[in-house]
Design brief:
alpha+beta, 2 domains, five-stranded antiparallel β-sheet, four-stranded antiparallel β-sheet, 1 helix, 9 strands, 23% helix, rod-shaped
Length: 158
């Protein structure tokens, strides 16, 4: 049987103590990340409809289109850009063309849409919550870029 000196025992105890401390720290930090991921996963988020309608256009194309969208709920929105998009005839008003896209935006975060119509055409943008409640609307000058911006509201009772 091998005898260990008190110095060796002290070193072994110190090594074990530091290993346990590092393990506890690692578990604690991983736990914080899990809590953050969980918080984001249950964050309130809106279904946002961005809509741009165009009057007086001979072409059905909008250019320089950009809007904000959260990749996942709980995250800040990032800009999505499209060089051109195609607007479709509006069933209610035959001289108007409309383009829209559904997006997700975390509650209390920014929502925005911008687009440029052809020369001489007038564009109107709208931001709708759940496809119904309008939270922003703007009409641009003929041939000029139109921008809509709004901060999405908090959910009631939160």
């Amino acid at each position: 049987m091998r005898r260990t000196s008190s110095l060796e025992r002290s070193r072994n105890i110190a090594r074990m103590s530091s290993s346990i401390a590092m393990l506890a720290l690692g578990v604690g930090l991983a736990g914080c990340g899990a809590v953050d991921s969980y918080d984001k996963a249950i964050s309130d988020a809106w279904s946002v409809t961005y809509e741009v309608s165009v009057d007086g256009a001979s072409d059905d194309t909008l250019s320089e289109v950009s809007y904000l969208e959260a990749e996942k709920r709980g995250e800040d929105s990032a800009e999505v850009t499209e060089d051109t998009v195609t607007a479709n005839a509006d069933e209610k008003k035959k001289t108007r063309k409309v383009w829209s896209v559904e997006s997700t935006v975390t509650a209390q975060k920014d929502a925005a849409i911008a687009a440029t119509p052809e020369k001489g055409a007038t564009a109107t943008c709208k931001i709708l919550l759940d496809g119904v409640k309008e939270i922003a609307s703007e009409t641009g000058a003929p041939g000029q870029r139109v921008d809509c911006e709004a901060t999405t509201p908090a959910f009631k009772g939160k």
